[in-house]
Design brief:
Distance between the termini: 79 Å
Order of helices and strands: HHHHHHHHHHHHHHHHHHHH
Number of strands: 0
Structural class: mainly alpha
Helix content: over 70%
Number of helices: 20
Largest sheet: none
Low-confidence stretches: 230-234
Strand content: under 5%
């Protein structure tokens, strides 16, 4: 158990699981191609991959697997709740990534090994597509703030179409890639833990809602002006991105639709399950064949996803319910979630400045300043003083060098005579 939990602790930080998730939204300051590659497909996925690769270690401990499942489930619903209220489109996608990584961890903890790896595979395509789409709308509007966008579908048809494809896949709408992998996770949760299944189903609704909230705020309604850069000749006029930006969107849109069929139709004996058999010992390989597609779960999850899309339409497109009235109705809850549960304040103000800084951090700083730096600076000071003392030897005078050499020769001859007499 200790080995499994130790490995998982590293994965919690690497794959931005609660409570070590705060770094990922802040990392969205980088360029969107970096976000698409590192934060959607490669770097943050390493933690999920490590748990999967070390799965035999986790399997010998029920407590370790439960820890993975519950941390993943809580992370999924926790991050999804924040994605509902944030207004920066890249932060929406960042919290979506955290939520989906939690989904994968939930799958691993409930025995859905194939489902987790399958979702890791499909997620890479549609989330990279969405990140690049956010960069495209930023190129047109000069901002990532969705409140300053709106109406971009008329100006950016390619970006709009591909962003909708990625969103439908993320929301888990049939036949897009995310539908197949998401429902296998739900099936694994249903078979192992009904509470986590309920959490996973709630995340389905929330994911569809915040994803299409972003679509309606960004692409529908009237354009709100954005913040065009001053050097842009098209300032005030949003326009479709150039081919160098739209071509990757079109390329990624294809696997965002079709990647789910890599594990279709017989999920138990073909596709990804068959490829993963060799990675596990025999009992685990047999357990893989118990996973499969369940129509009841698929239909119910699709209904929930469509309900989330419908609610987003009612609030942000039809405006039958005012978003402002919802904010007032939820009051403190909305404030708590919009401040991201005050996790940044907890780390920066409470733990670092008032907690660790006055105790452990101060002690470490003293040791670094006085011991480590003192040793380095002391060695340099001694060397400098020795050099200053010996500097007179290097006078640059040929006569002085000759005199010293002659004196040395006389001294050597004198010593040889003395030694020979003895």
């Amino acid at each position: 158990m200790a080995a499994g939990l130790g490995i998982f602790l590293g994965c919690v930080g690497k794959s931005a699981q609660f409570p070590l998730h705060v770094w990922l939204p802040d990392a969205m300051e980088g360029p969107t191609p970096v976000s698409a590659l590192i934060h959607a497909a490669t770097m943050v996925a390493a933690g999920v991959y490590l748990v999967a690769r070390m799965y035999p270690v986790f399997q010998v401990s029920e407590e370790a697997l439960k820890t993975v499942a519950y941390i993943g489930g809580f992370t999924a619903i926790f991050a999804a709740s924040i994605g509902i209220v944030v207004t920066d489109i890249k932060r929406v996608l960042a919290y979506s990534t955290i939520s989906q990584l939690g989904y994968m961890m939930l799958a691993l903890g409930t025995g859905g090994y194939v489902a987790a790896i399958f979702h890791l595979f499909t997620h890479a395509f549609f989330k990279a597509l969405l990140f690049l789409g956010s960069g495209s709308v930023n190129h047109a509007s000069g901002t990532f703030d969705m409140r300053k966008m709106g109406g971009l579908r008329r100006y950016m048809p390619i970006t709009y179409l591909t962003f909708v494809i990625g969103s439908l896949s993320l929301a888990g709408i049939v036949p897009f890639a995310g539908f197949w992998s998401k429902d296998e996770i739900l099936g694994a949760a249903w078979a192992d833990n009904k509470l986590l299944f309920a959490v996973a189903m709630a995340v389905v609704f929330m994911t569809a809602f915040y994803t299409f909230r972003a679509i309606f705020l960004t692409f529908h309604g009237e354009y709100k002006g954005g913040e065009p850069p001053e050097h842009d000749a098209h300032a005030g006029q949003p326009h479709e991105s150039p081919l160098v930006m739209t071509l990757p969107l079109l390329v990624l849109a294809v696997p965002a639709v079709l990647a789910g069929f890599a594990n279709f139709p017989n999920h138990a004996t073909e596709g990804i399950a068959h490829l993963l058999e060799g990675a596990l010992p025999a009992p685990s390989a047999e357990a893989l064949h118990k996973e499969g597609f369940q129509w009841g779960i698929a239909i119910s999850s699709t209904v929930l996803a469509l309900a989330g899309i419908g609610l987003a339409y009612v609030v942000y497109q039809a405006k039958a319910i005012s978003a402002e009235s919802l904010r007032r109705a939820f009051g403190p809850v909305h404030t708590l979630v919009s401040r991201e549960y005050y996790m940044d304040e907890l780390y920066e103000d409470v733990i670092v400045r008032r907690g660790l800084y006055g105790t452990a951090c101060a002690a470490v700083q003293w040791f670094d300043t006085n011991i480590v730096d003192g040793a380095v600076n002391g060695a340099g000071a001694v060397t400098r003083r020795v050099g200053d003392g010996l500097r007179w030897v290097q006078s640059g005078s040929v006569q002085a060098y000759g005199s010293v050499g002659f004196a040395g020769l006389v001294l050597a001859a004198f010593l040889m005579l003395v030694l020979l007499e003895k």
